[in-house]
């Protein structure tokens, strides 16, 4: 279809007003700096203090590295999308931005699952062999490879497009609407439901183990000597609840975004 004979069907604004760009940038900067600083300090401490380089802490450092990269990349990508009417990242950006964001997020949740399982084996199955540094290294490499592989369709099934209208050159990053609708369910499963299931199972077993331990020990010792166990269980469930509260809205927004994307494409084709 020759679009050069038609005017662009929407309002042309190219870049959002300066006050809006400034306000959103000022809002993002403290969040980015706070997150980057916190994760960087954690990595620095564990690198400098050899005694802290336990297998569990290595997994935590890996999580901090993934979060650090997420804090640097994801807000920038969001601002580019939000500030400009056109897609300004070009062909390379179209292939890499979704892939990088998806792989970093998946790597983070896989690392959370590994940490949860490590705590499960340490508390519920203490007589079994503990995680070694070599094992932690294998889990770290596996989390990154798994993240890259699961996010690969976000690179393979997106393509940079240009469409010349009579009064406007439109640039956008097009998604394959045949494959990606099904893939989004896989992505949501990897980012939300799989880690939620793993964390729920691990923390539930930990809670039951600590509850039985507390009942047995309370018969012999003062309650203060085992009160910290109750605090541990509460902390674990707080982590789980926070994960649910943050991830379920994310899941909802992804589906809303995708439905709007399909509706916009259909309306644009119709016009």
UniProtKB/TrEMBL annotation:
Keywords annotated in UniProt? G-protein coupled receptor, Membrane, Receptor, Transducer, Transmembrane, Transmembrane helix
Q: What is its main location?
A: membrane
Organism's domain of life?
Answer: Eukaryota
Query: What InterPro entries does this protein map onto?
Result: GPCR_Rhodpsn (IPR000276), GPCR_Rhodpsn_7TM (IPR017452)
Membrane topology classification? Multi-pass membrane protein
Q: Domain named G-protein coupled receptors family 1 profile: which ranges?
A: 38-271
Q: Which SMART domains match?
A: 7TM_GPCR_Srsx
Task: Tell me the Pfam families matching this sequence.
Answer: 7tm_1
| Location relative to the cell | Membrane
GO MF entries: G protein-coupled receptor activity
A GO CC annotation recorded here is:
membrane
Q: What is this protein called?
A: G-protein coupled receptors family 1 profile domain-containing protein
């Amino acid at each position: 279809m020759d679009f050069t004979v038609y005017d662009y069907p929407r309002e042309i604004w190219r870049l959002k007003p300066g006050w809006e760009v400034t306000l959103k940038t000022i809002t993002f900067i403290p969040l980015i700096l706070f997150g980057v600083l916190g994760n960087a300090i954690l990595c620095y401490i564990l690198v400098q203090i050899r005694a802290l380089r336990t297998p569990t802490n290595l997994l935590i450092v890996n999580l901090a590295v993934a979060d650090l990269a997420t804090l640097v990349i994801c807000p920038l990508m969001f601002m580019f999308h939000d500030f400009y009417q056109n897609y300004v990242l070009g062909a390379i950006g179209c292939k890499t931005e979704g892939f990088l964001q998806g792989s970093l997020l998946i790597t983070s949740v896989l690392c959370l699952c590994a940490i949860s399982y490590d705590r499960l084996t340490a508390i519920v199955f203490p007589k079994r062999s503990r995680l070694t540094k070599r094992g932690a290294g294998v889990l770290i490499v596996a989390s990154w490879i798994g993240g890259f592989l699961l996010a690969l369709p976000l690179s393979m099934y997106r393509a940079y497009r240009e469409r010349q209208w009579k009064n406007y050159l439109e640039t956008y990053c097009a998604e394959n609407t045949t494959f990606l609708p099904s893939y989004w369910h896989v992505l949501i499963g990897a980012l939300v439901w799989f880690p939620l299931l793993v964390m729920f199972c691990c923390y539930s077993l930990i809670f039951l183990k600590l509850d039985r331990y507390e009942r047995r020990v309370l018969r012999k010792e003062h309650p203060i000597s085992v009160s910290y166990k109750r605090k541990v269980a509460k902390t674990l469930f707080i982590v789980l609840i926070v994960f649910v509260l943050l991830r379920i809205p994310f899941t909802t927004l992804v589906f809303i975004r995708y439905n709007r994307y399909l509706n916009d494409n259909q309306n644009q084709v119709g016009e």
